[in-house]
Amino acid sequence: MTAAPQVIVLVFTGDSGLTHYSLSLARCLHEEGVSVQVLAGRSVAGEGFPAQPFPVLAYFRRSRWYPLDMLRLLWHLRRHPSAIVSVQSLLKSGWGEGLLFRGLRLLGQRCVMTVHDVQPHHPGRFSQASHRWLYGAFAGLVVHSQRAATTISAMGVSTPSSVVPHGLYDIFRVQVLPAAQWRRAYSSFDADDFVLLFFGYLDVRKGIGEFLQLIGDHAADPHLKFVIAGRNGLAAADPSAAAALVAARSDPRCLVMTEGVPFAEVQRYFEMADVVVMPYREGSTSGVLKLALAFGKPVVASDVGDLGEALSAGIGELVPADYCMAELRRAVAKVRGNWPSYAQRCAAVAEGYSWPRLASSYRTALGV
Q1: Tens-digit pLDDT profile for residues 16-30
Q2: What sign does the CA torsion over 243, 285, 301, 21 have?
Q3: Is residue 239 classed as helix, strand or coil in its secondary structure?
Q4: Which one, of 292, 294, 154, 289, lies nearest residue 303 by Cα?
Q5: What global pTM score does this model have?
Q6: Interhelix angle 339-350/287-294, nearest 10 degrees
Q7: pLDDT tens, 29-45?
Q8: Contact status, residue 335 vs residue 342, Cβ threshold 8 Å
Q9: Strands, sheet with 7-10, edge to edge from the N-terminal-most edge strand
Q10: Over 90: is that where the pLDDT of 191 sits?
Q11: Which of 105-114, 282-291, 310-319 is predicted most confidently?
């Protein structure tokens, strides 16, 4: 008989970085001796995740089932009234979900939310008010940076926040092969090529347009290669970038994958790369950075969200949030010119973001 969970990790998605984070957190808690259960979106069943030593329930359906699934969730949580609920995402309505978790709190259930993005990427007129209401519903918040904690406090939220850095995505490291073998297996790149990776949702706010400009700017450099891997969200938002992405598909210097990256294929793109480029125009925190660290890859990133705090440790080069292309090119050239020292620093810094190192802080924040 399965023991009643001490912690229920709640994530409404099935095929996203939030789910990957939730599984990593649950694995960490499990290894600490905590009885844990994950509730995720039903698409988690098709993601190809490795089997976990704790229950992973493919629970939430498509958004049209939202009202019914909220009632099912309430019933499920009340069957485990002593379990601590670690909420990883907002599904649809800050107002409605804030009401749900306020109700659970009145019933004595401890609920703690991990804030991955302080506000939505495309905030509406009442976004700040709805998020202030949502964050106020919890007994505590977990944030990934001091900057996020300060921003939430400035919104007028009095819920206590615990700063726990975003842990590494080492859940994706499933094979050990030399970088040259990854390149031979999945690309035409040579061992002496220098490879830049853009990974994640291909969107204007993520700076995919600027990454595509880098490709054009280095047309005369045959040993600088480019990998783009993620789900394409460009067509309507930026027609010129969408056209450049189409052109990159036929460029022999580029490897482009825009259908979304299955779990089992994430590792190959990071293993092939030398540097992960994150030219974001907007953001709060980034799982891609923790993927880069998990695979020992230096980064070039813009100073948005908590990226500046992370890069202060010397794991790559930071450009201003309002950077120009010349600044981005210089940062790439600097890392390329002294890559071994950046890679060594990544290996040293990664230990501080390992889940065993974060376990104590997270358990304190949850109260378990």
Answers
A1: 778 889 999 999 999
A2: negative
A3: helix
A4: 289
A5: 0.80
A6: 100
A7: 999 999 999 999 887 76
A8: yes
A9: 56-60, 36-41, 7-10, 84-87, 111-115, 140-143, 161-163
A10: no
A11: 105-114
State how far the alpha carbon of 342 is from the alpha carbons of 80, 210, 274, in Å. 47, 23, 10
Question: In this predicted structure, what is the pLDDT of residue 65?
Answer: 82
Tokens representing 69 are: 């699934």
Report residue 303 as tokens.
């100073």
What are the b/e assignments for 102-132, b being 16+ CB within 10 Å? Answer: bebeeeebbbbbbbbbbbeeeeeeeeeebbb
What amino acid is encoded at 301 in this protein?
A
Domains, the chain, ranges and CATH? Answer: 7-169+354-366 (3.40.50.2000), 173-353 (3.40.50.2000)
- Cβ neighbours around 282 below 10 Å, total: 16
Instruction: Count the residues in the chain.
Output: 368
Burial of 337 (0-12, 13-18, 19+ CB in 10 A): exposed
